[in-house]
Amino acid sequence: MSSTAEPSPLDHAIWSALNSRQKHLAEAFGSARRFLPEVSVLSAIALPGARAYADLAEMCQPGDRATLFDALPYQPQPGWVLVVGAPMLQMVRDPGSLSPGPAPAIVQNLGVADVPAMLELTRLTKPGPFSLRTHELGEYVGIRVDGQLAAMCGERLRVPGMSEMSAICTHPDHTGKGYAKLLMNEVARRMLERGDTPFLHVREDNKRAIAVYEAMGFRARRLSNFLVLNRV
């Protein structure tokens, strides 16, 4: 794992996305930012501290959740309760690890008409938060088997020159068929075609997933923490 000498948008990925390529999907107050609630629970603060967390609280109602990626472990803040926190690995894909080629015929583009099926699949497999308008964050693709959405993959954070893979999931009835890898390669191919480098986030304790991603050409970049907070 290595760190870059120059600041990178990936050092503060959610903040970078909310202040650049996905600013149109953001809410802002002072030194805090968050996606529109119907899009995502991802939020960001400029720097950790009471003032920033107070700004974030101003945008939230009691019971709202906020998910942050922070370089430091969470320190208790007024108005917030930690629901879960864990080390998280950020990985970046080597562009040379992917061979160009057309999309496989079984891959379908997913859009607003597919949202009910996408919500059902993510509720079942729990790849991460997914809401009614999460699909607006980027392109999503999937594979259907007998009309059922069997697997999907898409994009979440978009920062200058880079895009994050997310919502990588397979229905339990269709695991072991290589669907997730096929879809990840297709999403990565589309990213690279438009000049974006693919990256993703994974819990550090998910060794099986990390091994799969490494075999696909992803390399560890930095370790941080993901924090799920509840507004009280």
Question: How would you portray this structure in words?
Answer:
The chain is of the alpha+beta class and 232 residues long. It has helices at 13-18, 50-58, 115-125, 179-193, 207-215; strands spanning 26-29, 32-35, 43-45, 65-70, 80-93, 108-110, 140-145, 148-159, 162-170, 197-203, 218-231. The chain has an eight-stranded mixed β-sheet with strand order 4-11-5-10-9-8-7-6. A hairpin with a 7-residue loop joins strand 2 (32-35) and strand 3 (43-45). It is globular.
Helices and strands in order, then pairings?
Elements: H1 13-18, E1 26-29, E2 32-35, E3 43-45, H2 50-58, E4 65-70, E5 80-93, E6 108-110, H3 115-125, E7 140-145, E8 148-159, E9 162-170, H4 179-193, E10 197-203, H5 207-215, E11 218-231
Parallel strand pairs: 9-10
Antiparallel strand pairs: 1-2, 2-3, 4-11, 5-10, 5-11, 6-7, 7-8, 8-9
List keywords for this structure.
single chain; eight-stranded mixed β-sheet; 232 residues; 2 domains; 5 helices; globular; Aminopeptidase; alpha+beta; three-stranded antiparallel β-sheet
- The CATH superfamily title of the largest domain: Gcn5-related N-acetyltransferase (GNAT)
Beta-strand percentage?
35-45%
* Oligomerization status of the protein chains: single chain
Question: Architecture of the largest domain in CATH?
Answer: 3-Layer(aba) Sandwich
Task: Write a short abstract of this structure.
With 232 residues, the chain is α+β, with helices and mostly antiparallel strands. It has helices at residues 13-18, 50-58, 115-125, 179-193, 207-215; strands at residues 26-29, 32-35, 43-45, 65-70, 80-93, 108-110, 140-145, 148-159, 162-170, 197-203, 218-231. It folds into two domains: 9-88, Aminopeptidase; 91-223, Gcn5-related N-acetyltransferase (GNAT) (Aminopeptidase, 3-Layer(aba) Sandwich), CATH 3.40.630.
